From TrEMBL:
Record key words, sorted: Membrane, Transmembrane, Transmembrane helix
Stated name of the protein: Inner membrane protein
Source organism of this protein record: Flavihumibacter stibioxidans
NCBIfam families (UniProt xref): PRK11715.1-1
Transmembrane segments: 12-33, 297-316, 322-343, 350-367, 373-395, 402-420
Lineage of the species this protein comes from: Bacteria, Pseudomonadati, Bacteroidota, Chitinophagia, Chitinophagales
Record has S-adenosyl-L-methionine as a keyword: no
Pfam families: CreD
Superkingdom: Bacteria
Length: 433
């Protein structure tokens, strides 16, 4: 093996080691992105704690206390107090969400106000094992569950059987939910097996998420808003949905056949999260997630750029010093800090364009200064432009990112192999094809 081939081998090894070393700044940048993202989440939580968190509404239900008498072997009687929960027989729930984007420092927090209208009816029934005479009708309560009472904008009134009742914070038990409001209700035994209509309007504030729990025999829910980026989540997807430039509308329907509970609950615990559904309003641009995805392609930029410098220095016999490789690698790494900082103030697409233009210009001028030819420098500029454009497409894609990325990398490898076919790796002329 000649001295020339040895020199090329050693230079190739040094270049490969430098490529791996330059991944260290990429890891630090990735941690920086995570810190900024965490800071954004802290700001969102801080504002949400003062405004109102994501709301989950269980709707209205009745709680009827009753007594059960137990007799032991000695004939001694003891009285145990229990509670029967009665869910609506039917209900219709309509919600209108009004989104609000509040700036906080350099961040934007997505909040909303909503007006929720309930319209339904109860049917007062008792299970066979409950004696109507054991029911404490005068101690009954009407209840409504919601996550954060801080978000209540107006007092909650419910019209029940023609009577207007104001609800106050607190629930008689946690069978349905942990948080909510209730009010005493003087039911009469004469209401047994009768239908009682109810109606209410709830005005709430919340953050990002609005969920409901279908606590009724038969129910219909609808949500509409001017927000254009909804995510329908929870345990049930909407039966009908429309999302367009003017906002979204969605509806859900439930009946006794597709819910694993009836309208009478006897001291039975209820896992509300297992039945919650609704919508989460998404921010149209999450710059931190996109920046984080961009950093995953740092090895591609550094590896291909170093390889291009290595091949051209061999072809032009104009060696590039390892220190120069390090400077080029740092310039490629600074792209991500520029992208991160710019995207906190302007849209991600514009931030990407500015950061990429600055980096391409810097490296192109540096190549011109070293090789002395604009033709060579423009080759570097064109290759980097294609790389940044390719990465931008991958960042914007989600489901097909792996497919497009794999095809793109294959084509890049093919071009590198084609471009390096005339490199004299052993210091000897390459035979003409």
């Amino acid at each position: 093996m000649s001295r020339t081939s040895n020199a090329i081998l050693y230079k190739g090894i040094i270049t490969g080691v430098l490529i791996l070393l330059m991944m260290i700044p990429a890891l630090f940048i990735n941690n920086l992105v995570g810190e900024r993202k965490e800071r954004q989440q802290q700001v969102v939580q801080e504002v949400s704690s003062k405004w109102g968190s994501g709301q989950t509404l269980s709707g209205f239900f009745l709680v009827l206390p009753y007594e059960v008498i137990h007799t032991d072997a000695a004939g001694k009687q003891t009285t145990e107090r229990k509670e029967l929960t009665i869910l609506p027989e039917t209900q219709q729930v309509n919600s209108i969400m009004f989104p609000e984007v509040r700036p906080r420092s350099i961040y934007k927090v997505l909040l909303y106000k909503t007006t929720v209208n309930y319209d339904g009816r109860f049917v007062i029934r008792l299970p066979r094992e409950i004696d109507p005479a054991s029911v404490k009708w005068q101690e009954s309560r009407i209840c409504a569950g919601l996550t954060d009472i801080k978000g209540i904008e107006e007092k909650i009134m419910v019209n029940l059987d023609g009577s207007s009742i104001e609800l106050s914070p607190g629930l008689p038990n946690k069978v349905i939910t942990d948080n909510g409001l209730s009010a005493p209700l003087e039911l009469l035994p004469e209401k047994l097996n009768q239908s009682i209509a109810f109606r209410s309007q709830i005005k709430l504030k919340g953050s990002e998420k609005l969920h409901f729990i279908p606590l009724a025999g038969n129910s219909l829910f609808s949500i509409r808003s001017s927000w254009q980026n909804p995510s329908f989540d929870g345990n049930y997807l909407p039966g009908e949905r429309v999302v367009n430039d003017s906002g979204f509308t969605a509806s859900w329907s439930f009946n006794k056949a597709n819910l694993p509970f009836g309208t009478l609950l006897l001291d039975k615990g209820f896992e509300e999260k297992g039945f919650a559904f609704g919508v989460t309003m998404l921010q149209p641009a999450d710059q931190y997630s996109k920046t984080e995805r961009s950093t995953k392609y740092a090895i591609l930029f550094i590896g291909l750029t170093f390889s291009l410098f290595f091949i051209i220095e061999l072809m032009q016999k104009n060696p590039v010093h390892p220190v120069q490789y390090v400077l080029i690698g740092i310039a490629l790494s600074v792209f991500y800090t520029l992208l991160l900082s710019f995207s906190e103030f302007i849209a991600f697409d514009y931030a990407y364009g500015l950061a990429a233009t600055a980096t391409i210009t810097l490296i192109t001028l540096y190549a011109k200064g070293h090789f002395g030819l604009w033709k060579t420098a423009l080759i570097f500029g064109a290759v980097l432009s294609c790389l940044y454009a390719f990465t931008f497409v991958l960042v914007r894609l989600e489901d097909t990112a792996l497919l497009i990325g794999s095809i793109g990398l294959f084509l890049v490898l093919a071009l590198v192999m084609y471009g390096s076919r005339k490199v004299q790796w052993y210091g000897k002329p390459v035979p003409a094809a």
